[in-house]
Amino acid sequence: MDVGFVGLGAMGRAMARRLLDAGHSLRVWNRSPEPVAALVAEGASPAETLAAAFDAEVTISMLADDRVVERLLLDEELLSGARAAVHVNMATVSPGLARRAAELHAQHGLGYIAAPVLGRADVAAAGNLNILASGPTAELDWVAPLFDAMGRHTWHLGEDPAAANVAKVSANFLLVSAIEAFSEAAVLAEANGLAPAALLDVLTNSLFPGPVYAGYGAMITEQSFEPAGFRLALGLKDVSLALDTAAATNVPLPLASLLRDSLLQAIAHGHGEQDLAAISTTSRTRAAL
Amino acid sequence: MDVGFVGLGAMGRAMARRLLDAGHSLRVWNRSPEPVAALVAEGASPAETLAAAFDAEVTISMLADDRVVERLLLDEELLSGARAAVHVNMATVSPGLARRAAELHAQHGLGYIAAPVLGRADVAAAGNLNILASGPTAELDWVAPLFDAMGRHTWHLGEDPAAANVAKVSANFLLVSAIEAFSEAAVLAEANGLAPAALLDVLTNSLFPGPVYAGYGAMITEQSFEPAGFRLALGLKDVSLALDTAAATNVPLPLASLLRDSLLQAIAHGHGEQDLAAISTTSRTRAAL
Amino acid sequence: MDVGFVGLGAMGRAMARRLLDAGHSLRVWNRSPEPVAALVAEGASPAETLAAAFDAEVTISMLADDRVVERLLLDEELLSGARAAVHVNMATVSPGLARRAAELHAQHGLGYIAAPVLGRADVAAAGNLNILASGPTAELDWVAPLFDAMGRHTWHLGEDPAAANVAKVSANFLLVSAIEAFSEAAVLAEANGLAPAALLDVLTNSLFPGPVYAGYGAMITEQSFEPAGFRLALGLKDVSLALDTAAATNVPLPLASLLRDSLLQAIAHGHGEQDLAAISTTSRTRAAL
Amino acid sequence: MDVGFVGLGAMGRAMARRLLDAGHSLRVWNRSPEPVAALVAEGASPAETLAAAFDAEVTISMLADDRVVERLLLDEELLSGARAAVHVNMATVSPGLARRAAELHAQHGLGYIAAPVLGRADVAAAGNLNILASGPTAELDWVAPLFDAMGRHTWHLGEDPAAANVAKVSANFLLVSAIEAFSEAAVLAEANGLAPAALLDVLTNSLFPGPVYAGYGAMITEQSFEPAGFRLALGLKDVSLALDTAAATNVPLPLASLLRDSLLQAIAHGHGEQDLAAISTTSRTRAAL
Q1: Domain map of chain D by residue range?
Q2: Would you tell me how many other CB atoms lie within 10 Å of the CB of residue D207?
Q3: Do B257 and D262 touch (CB under 8 A)?
Q4: Is the peptide bond before B46 cis (omega within 30 degrees of 0)?
Q5: Mean pLDDT throughout D27-51?
C-alpha cells in the first residue's frame, strides 16, 4: 500500500522498517531530519511537510503523547486537505483524545483508527507487537496487511475509537502493578533471608510465566536499571493517564494511586530516566534496605 | 517409603492418594474419621493416634494454619516419642512458626522440612503441585521421591527452615495483588466502554499468560464466585501473614495493606466464603457499578 | 479606598459588603447581572466592563478557579489598560498560576497580591475570614485596611506570590484529611458499639477543639449533608490541586491520594453536590454499614 | 477511699500521687521496687503481693498493654480472693480484652470499669487527664471522687465495658492521623517555598487550635524528636490496635493502614524510640528532602 508515516522515534522507526520490508511504499515525516534520512536510505521517500505524509492511501502516526498529537495532527487544515482515507493513530493517548480525534476526522471525511501497541522497540523490530485496534470494521480490515507486517497479532476491540486506548491504558497500569508487587515481595523476601532471585525463579516457573516477571524481575533482583528499555518517567505518564481516565468516569483506582506515589518517590530520588524497574527502589527505601 | 500422613482435608487427601499410587506405604491420621476411612479403602492403614502417625520413616503433615500446627504437632511428648527421622510440614504457616518448629524438632532429634505448595486440590490430584522446600539438604534429598510423587517440581530454597514459608507467603501476596490489579482494570475498562472479557483476552495472550489471569480473570469478568476454589477468607489470612512477616522485620508493604482493606470490605459485604476472585466486588462497589 | 471588585458569588458578595460597610468606594463586576444590582442597591457602583473594574486604585477578584482566572483576568489588554496599582487575587488557585500571574502583571506595571481565605460565606459575612496573603510588603501594607474590613486576621506569608496559595492548598488538604479520619473513626466506633456522637463529644472537648471537628463532625454523626456549606466536588478540586502542586515538585502525598479516592467514590455514589462531610459515606460503604 | 494501685510507670506514678494528694489511702504494687519506695516516701503503703493490692475497697491498675494485663490480672485466684468491690483498669487495652476481663471479673463477683485516659505524664501530674470511662453506672458514680482527683473531666461512655477502650483506640488513631497529615503538608509547603513553621502558625490560629497541632507541629517543623513524650513504637502499637479492632468487625480503615506503613518505615529508619512526631521523617524521605 501507499503509506504516509509520521513520527520516527525508536518505536516508529522499527515499525516503518517492517512496512518497507513487507513491500509497502512509505512517505515518512519526522520533526528532526536524521531519522527521515535513515529511512530514505532504506527505501522510503521523504515527506517535506506533514501534509505530504497525509497525501497517501493511509497515514500511520506514532507520536509521543496527547499534547504532541493534539498540536500536530488535530489540525483542521491538515485533515481537510488529506488524500488519505484513513489515519491510524498508534500512539498511547487518552481515550478522551481518541474520541475528539475521531469526531474531527469524521467532519473532514477521514477515517480514524486507534491502534496503540504492546511491546518495546526490540519487539517492534522483530514484528512481534501486539496491536490493540478499534474503529470501523471495514477500515480495520482494509489496513490489516499493515498490522500484519508490524505485529504478531491484532486485537479488534470494537467500533468505539477509544476502546483500544482504554485497553492500552489498562494494560500499562497492570504492568506497573506487577512490577510494584514483585518489588514489595522482593524486599519481604530479602528481609526474611530468602534471596529475591530464588523467589523470582519460583514465580516465573509457576504462577507468573510471561515477559513481565521475567524481564522486570531480573532487573529488580539485580537492582540494575540501565539502559532504560522503558523510562520510569513514562511509566508515571501512563499511570497518570489511567488515573485521569478513571476519574473522568468517577472510578477510584487505589492501586494506581499507590503506583503514582511510588513512581513520584523514585523520581524524587533520581530514578526518572532509569528503567521502570527502578520503582523497586521505593520499596527498598521504605524498608531502609 | 513408610510414611505417616497427618491432615486429610481436600489438599491432604489428594496428596496422600498420589503417594499411595506411587507405591508408598501410608499410615494416615485425621481429626474426623471419614477421610481416614476413605484412604484406608484405597490402601492406607489408619493411625489410631497422632503418635502412631509419627511411628514411620517420615511423617508428612498438611494442616490448616499456625494455630492448628502449634496445638497438634509442637508437642514435646509427641516429638520425643517419634520414630520418624524427618517431619515434612507442607502447610502454609508463618516463617516464625517454622523457625520455632525446627528448633523444637532438633531438640528431640527429629529433622524438620518446610514444604508448602502452590496449587489447589485439583492440581494436587494431578500431581502437578509446585513444592517450595527448605531444610537440610541431605534430608531433602532423602524425601525427594515423595515430593516427586506429589508435584511437578520441587524448589530447594536453602537450609533455613523458614525460607520455603517466606516464598509461599510472598507468592500468595503476589497472587492476590494480581487479582486486585485486574479487578481495578476491569472496572476502568467497563466504565469506559470496553468489555472486561475483551481486555482479559488481550492480557492472557500477551503480557500475562499463565494460570492467574486466565483462572481468576474469567471469574472476575463473569462475576461468578462459586464454587470457591480458594476461599476469600483464606486470602485474607495469607495477606495478613505477609503483613505480619513483613512487620516483624520493619518492612512496610503498602500494596499488601491495600489488599487487606479490599478483602475486609469484600467480607463485610458477604463474600468471605466465596472464591478469592470476589475481591473484585470491592472495586465495583467503589465505582458504584 | 477606591476599589474595583470582580466576582460576586456567595463569598465575593459577602466580602464586598464588608468593604462597603467599612466606607470604601466599590465598583463591582460580575458575569451575571443580579448580584451587581444587589450590591448597587447597597451603595456600590456598577462596572459596565471588566476593564472598568480595573479603573480603580486597587482591584480585588474572587473567582472560581484557575480556568476562570486565566480566561478572564490574565489578559494582556486588560492588564495593560488598568489604572489600578495592585490586583488582589483572593481565589483558591494553583501556586503555578500565581507565579505566572505575578509575572504577567509585572510586565504591565501592575502589582499582584495572592490572598486566598479560610472560611465559608457566613464567616465572610461576619468579617471573620483568615486571610492568607503573599506579595510585596509595601503593597500588602497599603491594602491592609481592606483586609481588616474582611477578615479577623491577615497572615503575611512572604514576598513569593505563590506562598499564600501553597498555604491555602495545604490547609484544605488538612481539612479533608481531618474529615476522612473522623469518618473512619466513626465507623470503627459504631461497629464496636460506641455511638459516634459520644466519640465526637470527647474529641471536641479534648484533643480536637476548633471548627473542623465541631462542624463537620456533627454532619457526619447525623449523616446529614444538605444544605452544602462546602460542596464535596469542590473538595475534590482542592485535593487534586494539592496532588498536582506536590507532583510538580516530585512530592508523594499518599494521604491526599487516599482522600482523592474516597471523594471519587462519594461522587460515584451520588454525593458530589452534597457537603464535603459526605466523604463519610465512603467509610460507611466500605464497612457495609 | 481505701485504694489499691497496680502499675507505677510514668503515668501510674503521677496518677497515684494525685490520689494521695486528695487524701485517699493507697496500697501500691509494682513489678520493680523503686517506684514503690518513692510512693511510700510520699505516704502510700506498699503491697507485698498483687493480691495485697486487691485487698482494698477499689483497685486501680495502669499497666502497659493487653499482654501484661492478661498475664498479671486475669488470674482466677487473684480475682476470687479479692476484697475490692471494683477494679478500674485505666490501661489502653483492646476492646476484646475489656469484654473478656469484665466477664471474668463478674464470675468472681468483682466489678470491672474500663477507664483509659487521654494525656501524657505531665498532664497526669497536673490532674488534667481526660478520663474515658465505661461500666455499670452505680460503680462509676462510686469511684467518681478518684477520677476527680486524677482528671479534669470524666466521660461516661455507657455500660459496655469495651466502650471506653473503643473511644481511646479511636482517639489515638485520630491523633496519629493528624500528625501524618501535617507531616505531608509540611513537605508540600517546604518543597514549594513556604516555611512549614509559617504554615503551622496559620493552622493553629485558625482551623486547628488545640494541643495536637501545637505540640506535634512544633516538633515536626523543628525535626526535633527527643526527648520522646510519646514513643513512636507505642504509636504503632495503638494504630495496630485500631486495625485489629476494626478487622474483628470487618471494618476497613485505609487511613490507619497508611499510618501503619508510615510508622513501620520510621522504625526501619531508626526512629522507633523517638517521639511519635518522627513519623514525619517518612514524608521527608518520600520526597527526598
Answers
A1: 2-160, 166-286
A2: 19
A3: no
A4: no
A5: 97
Contacts of D258 in chain B (CB under 8 A): 254, 257
Q: Find the residue in A nearest to D262 (Cα).
A: A286
Which residues of chain A neighbour B193 with C-beta distances below 8 Å? Answer: 160, 162-163, 166
Q: Give residue D34's pLDDT.
A: 96
Across all residues in chain B, what is the average pLDDT?
A: 97
What are A110-163's pLDDT values in tens digits?
999 999 999 989 999 999 999 999 999 999 999 999 999 999 999 999 999 999
pLDDT for position A114: 98
List CB contacts (< 8 A) between A285 and chain D: 285
Confidence at residue B239, expressed as pLDDT on a 0 to 100 scale: 98
Q: Which residues of C touch A261 (CB under 8 A)?
A: 252-254, 257
CATH topology match: D2-160 vs D166-286: no
Distance CA D262, CA D181 (A): 11
Neighbors of chain D by Cβ distance (3+ pairs < 8 Å): A, B, C
Interface of D with B (CB under 8 A): 246-247, 250-254, 257-258, 260-262, 264-265, 267-268
By C-alpha distance, the chain A residue nearest B287 is: A251
Calculate ∠ Cα B159-B164-B165, nearest 5°: 130
Beta sheet of A151-156, edge-to-edge order: A117-118, A129-133, A151-156
Residues with Cβ within 8 Å of D71's Cβ and at least 6 positions away in sequence, in order, are: none
pLDDT tens-digit series, residues B6-25: 999 999 999 999 999 999 99
Q: Please tell me the pTM assigned to this model.
A: 0.96
- Residue C110 has a pLDDT of 97
Active-site hit among C17, C27, C105, C168: C168
Of A17, A168, A260, A271, which one is the catalytic site residue? A168
Closest Cα to residue D160, out of D109, D118, D112? D112
Residues of C in contact with B286 (CB under 8 A): 261, 264-265, 268
A269 with D288: Cβ contact below 8 A: yes
Number of H helices, E strands in chain A: 15, 9
The alpha-carbon gap from A177 to the nearest alpha carbon of chain B, in Å, equals: 7
DSSP C69-88: HHHHT--HHHHHT---SEEE
Query: Quick one: pLDDT at residue C165?
Result: 98
Quick check: D25 and D2 in contact, CB under 8 A?
Answer: yes
Do D278 and D225 form a contact (C-beta atoms < 8 A)? Answer: yes
pLDDT band at D107 (very low <50, low <70, confident <90, very high): very high
**C-alpha cell recorded at residue D27:** 496500697
Mean pLDDT across the stretch B113-119?
Answer: 97
d(CA A30, CA A53): 10
**Chain D closest-CA separation from residue B285 CA (Å):** 14
pLDDT at residue C21, rounded to an integer: 97
B174 contacts A185? CB cut-off 8 A:
yes
List of chains touching B (3+ CB pairs within 8 A): A, C, D
What whole-number percentage of chain C has pLDDT above 70?
100
Q: Which residues of chain C have pLDDT under 50?
A: none
- Three-state secondary structure call for residue D115: coil
CATH superfamily of domain region B166-286: N-(1-d-carboxylethyl)-l-norvaline Dehydrogenase; domain 2 (1.10.1040.10)
Tell me the mean pLDDT in the region B39-65: 97
Kindly identify which residue of chain C lies nearest to residue D131, measuring between CA atoms.
Answer: C202
What's the CATH number for D2-160?
A: 3.40.50.720
Q: What is the pLDDT of residues C174-216, one digit of tens each?
A: 999 999 999 999 999 999 999 999 999 999 999 999 999 999 9
**How many angstroms separate the CA atoms of D188 and D185, rounded?**
5
Q: pLDDT digit string (tens) for A256-283?
A: 999 999 999 999 999 999 999 999 999 9
The domain A2-161: what is its CATH number?
3.40.50.720
Name the closest residue on chain C to residue A243, using Cα atoms: C261
